[in-house]
Amino acid sequence: MKVGFIGLGHLGRAIAKRLIDQGIELIVWNRTISKAEEFAKETGAEVADSPADLINKVDRVFVIVFDSQASEEVIFGEKGLADGEIKGKTVIDMTTNHYTYAEVAYRELKKIGAYYLDAPVLGSVIPAMKGELTVVVGGDKEKFEENKVLFEKFCKAIYYVGEAGKGSKGSGKDARRDKN
Ligand SMILES: NC(=O)c1ccc[n+]([C@@H]2O[C@H](COP(=O)([O-])OP(=O)(O)OC[C@H]3O[C@@H](n4cnc5c(N)ncnc54)[C@H](OP(=O)(O)O)[C@@H]3O)[C@@H](O)[C@H]2O)c1
Question: Which stretch of 36-40, 62-66, 108-112, 169-173 has the lowest confidence by average pLDDT?
Fold first, then answer.
């Protein structure tokens, strides 16, 4: 099973590397494509041409970008995930989003037959490399259960908190998220 991964910033890169080290095959995309190519050279990951191209090749995709605006661009923008063959597939958004965005993203993806897990992470680069992050997940329980095995590759604590938006609301960072 190949898994999609979008966002090779500081934390994204560390999580992606950890997943590969744990035996997960990744197809990656990053806005600055040279970062994705460099990552691929180092790890053997495949690089997609765009989020839309990426979702055509996988059933689930992690997204970890700067903020809600960046997440919206990657999911709903031009050549975004929603432009590809996304029906029946799951977007696992680990971006630190505002919870109202997570609620909308969940609803909009549902309308086109796709699933959204709102899954902000707590921790930083070193805990990510050691598989010691914490993740707080909101969204459909069935989709959470399906993807739990992937969270276990890089998290020491995994909390399912109910509907989409509750992951972002419940992780105690709302004040900071209001920047989004
Ligand atoms: N760093 C941490 O320790 C930490 C801890 C907990 C939570 N988080 C959260 O995790 C998320 C990512 O953090 P990070 O440290 O990896 O951030 P980062 O190093 O600033 O990287 C940001 C990533 O977002 C991408 N991006 C930004 N704007 C974009 C846009 N409009 N469209 C597409 N991609 C865009 C960047 O692409 P480019 O490479 O093209 O710029 C890069 O891949 C954030 O929401 C942050 O709050 C981080």
Answer: 169-173
Which domains, from first to last, does the chain contain?
2-177 (3.40.50.720)
Tokens of 44: 């053997």
pTM assigned to the model = 0.95
Sign, CA torsion 110/3/5/119: positive
Query: pLDDT tens digits, residue range 94-110?
Result: 999 999 999 999 999 99
Q: What is the dihedral of CA 41, 46, 51, 53, to 10 degrees?
A: 140
Helix 99-111 with 68-76: angle, nearest 10 deg: 10
Closest ligand 1 atom to 11 CA: 16
CA 178 to chain centre: 20
**Most ligand 1 atoms within 8 A of CB, residue of 28, 65, 75, 81 to mutate:** 65
What is the average pLDDT across 140-157? 98
Nearest CA to ligand 1 atom 17: 9
Distance 9 CA to ligand 1 centre (A): 5
